Amino acid sequence: MSTDHGLERWLADRVVEDDGVMQLTWGNPYGEHHTLKANIVERQKNSHIRLRWVDEEEDDAFWEMRIGKSELTDELCLFVEDYAYAEDLDDLHDLWDGNLDRLHQSSGF
Known about the structure:
Layout: H1 4-8, E1 14-18, E2 21-27, E3 33-44, E4 48-53, E5 63-69, E6 76-82, H2 89-107
C-alpha cells in the first residue's frame, strides 16, 4: 500500500517513486495521460502513507491511507483521509470509490 509497486496495482496506471516523490500517471504513459506528483510526508510500512501534492497551496492539505482496526467490528480496514473543498466532495467520493473497487479486484478482498 505504501510503495510505488503496491500503489500501481490499484491507484494509478503507473507509479514511480524517486527521492521521496511519487509520480502517479493515469492513462497510457506513452500516449494520452495525466501525471501528478506527490511528496511523501510520512510513511510506515504495513501501517500508513501520507502524501501531499507537489503543487498544493494549502498548508494543511494531504491525503493519507492507513490500515487499522475497526472499533465496531475489530477487523482490519483501510481508512482514507483526503483534504478537499466542500464543492469537490462528491467527485472525490466517486474517485475513491473507483480506487477501492480496483483494490478489491486486484487483491481479491
